[in-house]
Design goal:
single chain; mainly alpha; Neurolysin, domain 3; 3 domains; two-stranded antiparallel ribbon; 24 helices; disordered N terminus; binds zinc ion; glycoprotein
Length: 649
């Protein structure tokens, strides 16, 4: 089981509610077993779940070992083994899901019903029982994913760019608006060929979801939140309404800055912001344009990266001084590598120390023996950071090509959030070894990163103590907001679009227009060039062809502030929320662990209550956290006409 960060293009394998929902290649078995026809009892359902728990214990270590070997040692052989293990696992899951249909009408215990629901939700693309349709669905999924993975924009004859290369242009605030629009268009063109596939995918996915007892695929995706799909819709909208004033203020300010930079012709003073000018292909996180909007140039930036690099270089010098004889170039390369590895361990220990300071246990010995913390010199690995639970009983690992910089340090804290979640819920039956809902898993490590304040970094000796004035606070909040606040409308609308598609409320003839309606309504952005129904712009985002639900990220961004607020309260902290550091507070740690230990065994409301004392998700802590920035933005926005009209068709 593994969990990864939101990436722009990398394959994301998500642990969905206690199950490794690892439909990476989109493989599905070609044959389906007929559902059992005899009437089933509650006792049968209990036995069925017990069998699944036993199977997980037996099968998952094998599955994880094959995936781990492949990800940390890419060869034809390990790929063959991993894909075989993946097929076997998906075949098993899909067989069990089919069998579970016999309990659709059985009145079983709460735990058993919950376990069966979690089993059904273990895949985001349930296949119909008809073998021909199963095969067709599998084929469409792998075609869509392959189309995304191999998408290229050919700028000129013989000059074809892949997504990371195209992103370099779009992300660069110094590139001309024309160059960025061209690159934006180049990437979005690559999604056109899967438009028809998506229409068929929605039909087949809906059919599979209906067989499992859901009205459509969108309702199935919303079935994992211990409330009705309609209630969940309303809940997400309520959270959005809570936090949107901050987004609106940021949108207004950034639009003003962009207008000043590029003029009325390119960015109007009011209305929508062209989506290609926000430093990101999907306008989902805007920190790349920070230089254009930095409130107080140069004030208060902490050079954590420089501090980490200095430590790493110190390590290298030490190794060199201990070397006997005259080192060859090969020896020097090896010493460099050893210094990188030592630094990676040191950075991981910094993150571990945060968790143990809260009263959580030290990581098991095997974590350091078996994790991959640095890019090996002798082989290819998948560098995308991820956290793994190999056997559901303590063999946890991270895989990350750690380099000595600030972002990587923060990523380690994030990954260890997953690791401690695993360790805390390892005592539960395997089907319940998962997050309370899918927004929780991503939130845990991010909560901890909120405590990495300038004071904290000074306290642990990473950077010198320095005076933090209000200007430095505003600068650092702006940087955070450009990632955390700008993400919110995007995090909401991606599934908003899919729920409409799956429900039949958005017809294929309006796919693209419906997409841009939502982007206008929530993000306040417009396409850089005219779009038509020949385009398929949703398909230019990995999670659409990769069929990964997205609302979890929105929820995680809201929850992490709510959790931080609750932990700070538990710690008796009384200052401004943005300066709170829960390091070393065991009372906060105890609350944290109580919540984590419940895994997916109970409705999330109950689990959230363990930590926060409330059964509702709440966006008010996010607003409180950014109070200084909001005040700054309101002052800056005075005299500007804020907001935008999202034209309704
Ligand atoms: Zn993660």
């Amino acid at each position: 089981m593994l969990v990864t960060r939101i990436g722009s293009g990398a394959l994301l394998l998500m642990a969905a509610l206690g199950l490794a929902a690892c439909g990476g290649g989109g493989e599905q078995p070609q044959s389906a077993r007929k559902p059992v026809q005899t009437a089933a009892s509650a006792a049968d359902a209990d036995a069925f779940v017990a069998g699944i728990n036993d199977d997980y214990r037996e099968k998952l270590p094998y599955f994880s070992a094959a995936q781990w070997a492949q990800a940390t040692y890419i060869t034809d052989d390990t790929q063959l083994l991993a894909s075989r293990a993946n097929e076997e696992w998906l075949e098993y899951l899909s067989r069990k899901v089919q069998e579970s249909k016999q309990f659709n009408e059985v009145d079983a215990s709460d735990d058993t019903e919950r376990a069966i629901l979690l089993l059904k939700l273990s895949t985001a693309n349930p296949a119909p029982s008809d073998p021909a349709k199963r095969a067709e669905l599998a084929k469409i999924l792998s075609k869509m994913e392959a189309n995304y993975g191999s998408g290229k924009w050919c700028k000129a004859e013989g000059e074809c760019l892949s997504l990371p290369e195209i992103e370099k242009i779009v992300n660069d605030p110094t590139a001309t608006p024309e160059a960025r629009a061209e690159a934006w268009l180049g990437w979005h063109e690559t999604a056109k060929p899967i438009r028809e596939d998506y229409v068929r995918f929605a039909e087949l996915g809906n059919e599979g979801a209906k067989e499992l007892g859901f009205a459509n695929l969108g309702e199935m995706w919303r079935a994992g939140y211990d409330m009705s799909p309609a209630e969940f819709d309303a809940e997400v909208e309520r959270l959005w309404q809570q936090v949107s004033p901050l987004y609106d203020a940021l949108h207004c300010h950034v639009r003003g800055k962009l207008n000043a930079e590029y003029g009325d012709e390119v960015v109007p003073k009011d209305g929508l912001i062209p989506a290609h000018l926000l430093g990101n292909m999907w306008a989902q996180q805007w920190s790349n344009i920070y230089p254009l909007v930095e409130p107080y140039p140069g004030v208060g930036s902490l050079d954590v990266t420089a501090a980490l690099k200095a430590r790493r270089d110190g390590e290298y010098k030490r190794l060199l001084s201990e070397f006997k004889g005259k080192p060859t170039p090969l020896d020097l390369a090896e010493l460099e590598h050893q210094a990188d590895a030592a630094m990676a361990v040191q950075m991981t220990k910094i993150a571990e120390d945060f968790y143990t300071s809260l009263g959580m246990p030290a990581l098991p010995e095997s974590f350091y023996d078996k994790s991959l913390l640095v890019k090996p010199r002798d082989r290819d690995v998948v560098c995308h950071a991820s956290a793994w639970d190999m056997n559901m009983q303590g063999d946890v690992r991270i895989k990350q090509c750690i380099e000595p910089d600030e972002e990587q340090l923060s990523t380690i804290h994030h990954e260890l959030g997953h690791i401690y979640y695993y360790l805390m819920y390892n005592g539960l039956p395997p089907v319940f070894q998962g997050a309370a809902h899918d927004g929780f898993h991503e939130a845990i490590g991010d909560v901890v990163t909120l405590s990495l304040t300038p004071e904290h970094l000074a306290k642990i000796g990473l950077v010198p103590q320095q005076e933090i004035d209000n200007k430095a606070v505003i600068n650092s909040q702006m940087k955070w907001a450009l990632d955390k606040i700008t993400f919110l409308p995007w995090g909401k609308l991606v599934d908003q679009w899919r729920w409409k598609v799956f429900a039949g409320d958005l017809k294929p003839a309006d796919y693209n227009a419906g997409w841009w309606d939502l982007r206008a309504q929530y993000q306040g952005v417009s396409p850089p060039v005219a779009r038509s129904e020949a385009d398929f712009d949703p398909g230019a985002k990995y999670h659409i062809p990769g069929n990964t639900p997205y609302t979890r990220y929105f929820l995680s961004f809201v929850l992490q502030f709510q959790m931080q607020k609750a932990l700070c309260d538990a710690a008796g902290y009384e200052g401004p929320l943005h300066a709170c550091d829960i390091y070393g507070n065991e009372e906060a740690g105890k609350r944290f662990m109580d919540m984590l230990a419940q895994g997916a065994s109970r409705p999330w409301q109950e689990t959230l209550e363990k930590l926060t004392g409330t059964r509702e998700m709440d966006g008010s802590a996010l607003i409180e956290y950014f109070e200084p920035l909001l005040a700054y933005l309101e002052e800056q926005n005075e005299g500007l006409s804020c907001g935008w009209e999202a034209a309704k068709r």
